[in-house]
Each structure stands twice: as C-alpha cells, then as structure tokens.
Amino acid sequence: MLLNNRISTFYIPILTLVNSKFLFAHDTLSKTNFDFKNYVLLGTIELIILSCLLMLSLFLLILLNYKLRKTKDNLTIALKNLEESKQRFLDVTDAAEAVVWEIGRDSKFNYVSNKIEKILGYFPEELFEMSVYNILKEKENFQIEILKSIEEKEKLYKRKYKFTHKNNNEIWLQISGVPIYDEYNKFMGFRGVLNDITREYHRECKLNILARSDALTGLMNRRYFLEESRKYLESNILEEKDFSYAMVDIDYFKNINDTYGHDAGDKVLRELAILMKEVSKGECLIGRLGGEEFAYAFPNTNIKNAKQLMIDLQNKINRHAFIVNGEKIFISVSVGISYLNETNKTLDELNKASDIALYKGKNNGRNRIEVQKK
C-alpha cells in the first residue's frame, strides 16, 4: 500500500504533463499549419524520455522501500537486543550482592538497584527524590573525595562512608564509582557499586581495639602506649611544648596475689585502671606496661601539673576500698616522674628516668612520688 502511494505520487504528475503536451499539440494544429509529422516525432521522443524517467522513478521507489524495510527490521532487532540487555542488567543487579547506583550533577539519585531496600530501608523510588547528602553522615569527607575524583578523572575505590538507615541506625557502606562525562567532557554525575560492610567495620574496630588494648584493664597495651607517646613527644619537641612522663607501680602487689589469689589481683588491677582514668580526665595517655606497672604520658603538660595529677591519683587510691572476696583492702602506689629537658629528649630516656625515680620512691618507704631530672 505504501509503495502504491509513492508510485502514484510520481506517476500522476508525469501523466498530467504528457496529456498537456497532446492538448497543446491539438490546439496548435487546429489553429495553424504546423508540421504534424515533426511534432509527432518530437512528442514521441519526449514520451520515451518521460517513460524512462518514470521507470527510473519506479526503480528508485522500489529500492527505497526495500531499504526502509531493511532499516525497520534492523531497528526491531536492535530494540529487542536493547530490551534483552536491559533485562540482563536488571537480573544481574538483583542477583549481585552489591548495589548499583548513579547520581547526577545535583547529587540526586538517578538510579539505584532494588537491593538498596535491604541495606538502607528505602525503596529505589524514595531515593530518586533525595540527594545522597540526605542520608550521608560524613558529608565533608565524601565531598572532598568526589571533587578530587572529578578533577583528576579517577575512580573512587572501596572508600568507607557512614550512612543513616531509614530507621536512623548507622550503616557503613563501601563505595566504588567513576565520574561520568558527556561528549563535550562535561561532568554529568557518578555511577558505581556499594556494599554493606557494617558488620565487617565493627569487627575490624574491635580487632583494632584488641590489638592496642590491654585485655585485662582496657588501657593501652605496652606497644601501643609507647608508640603513641613517642608521636606526642616528637610533636611537642617540634612545637617547643612541655611533655611529662610518669610510671606507677602498686606497692606489695605480690602479697595480694599470694593472700587472696590471682583473680583478686586481677580485680584490683581493673579497679585501679578505672581510678587512673578518672584522675586523668582524658588529658593524657595511660598504658599498662606489664604486671602491676602502669605509665602516664602527659603531652603539653609541665612537671608541676603532672605532679599534681599524680598527687590526686595517690590520694584517690589511698582512700579507695577494694572489695576482695567480701573483704575491704587498701593499697598504695609509688610514682616516678620525669619531664622533657636537655637530658631527657627521647621516650627511652624519659622512661629510664621515671623508672629510676619510681624505685627511689620504693626505697624511701613506698607510697611516694619522686621526680627525676636526669
């Protein structure tokens, strides 16, 4: 039907033209002595030419119709393939553990796969009306890394960010993504994948705490305490600030273990750690060096203030009743203090000086505070 319409479009004007020629010839012959044979000859040639044009037009129409049919078939196949690819993509995103996401230049979600509902509690349709910053806790860090990725045209890879679940719980997500640009190299948004790593994050935090904490008291363990103290000391030296250091040892602790047992001794150590933290008020580092020996590092603190804190600690301990096997017992501690000066410039030197002061206090009757200058 389409072909017939196209043929008619070309054919009717040609027939009209031929008919007008013969009408002209008839009028001319009736009015003049025009040479009929020559005119017929010219008309025949013209008719032949018009017939050839008509045949050529028909051929071109047939060819055009064939190409249109071919294009239509190719388009149908392409649309089918596109639909299959879309369904394949949806099947993969639904089956994958990761969530596929895309945000535009305005930071609003353009796309997010269905798994997001299990992770953040939102249906995809709800997020389409929201900016990623509406559910992101660490907005500043995310923005800095996004801007850096855009400027350097590099992908984000396994970055950890804290988000807010629909029920207001905190969720940790691991995000990877790449910036999107149009044909004019204009930034259009971001797309990538994300995974829920909340359990792994908390497990990692616990492992990190265990790795740097004393299992019995919860204070810093020896390795982590010395490592952090050294960092603060080096910083204070560069900034020309004060730094003090103290060692604390329980007097006659062996008698507690021998009299009441090691469980009782452990209980005393745990309670002592609590008292030490109450006195410090978070202004210093506290670590258990081993056994009944503890240490303080006082950044930005002169010897006078450090000594006053140790006096407060000693008074608090002397007044505190430790309940062991239903019995009240009292303990005392000896303290040795050193501070940053021309002689003590390294943590090893401060540790050695404090140890000397500590045992000076032990030898002078215990329950004492001694300061060692060098």
Explain what this protein looks like in three dimensions.
The longest helix is centred in the first third of the chain and has 60 residues. This protein has 3 domains: 91 residues; 104 residues, PAS domain (Beta-Lactamase, 2-Layer Sandwich); 159 residues, Reverse transcriptase/Diguanylate cyclase domain (Alpha-Beta Plaits). The model has no long low-confidence stretch (mean pLDDT 85). A hairpin with a 2-residue loop joins strand 9 and strand 10. Helices cover 55% and strands 21% of the residues. The strands form 3 sheets. It has a 5-stranded antiparallel sheet. Helix 1 runs antiparallel to helix 2, helix 8 packs across helix 9 and helix 9 crosses helix 10. The chain is built from 11 helices and 12 strands. It is rod-shaped, with a radius of gyration of 45 Å. By secondary structure, the protein is of the alpha+beta class.
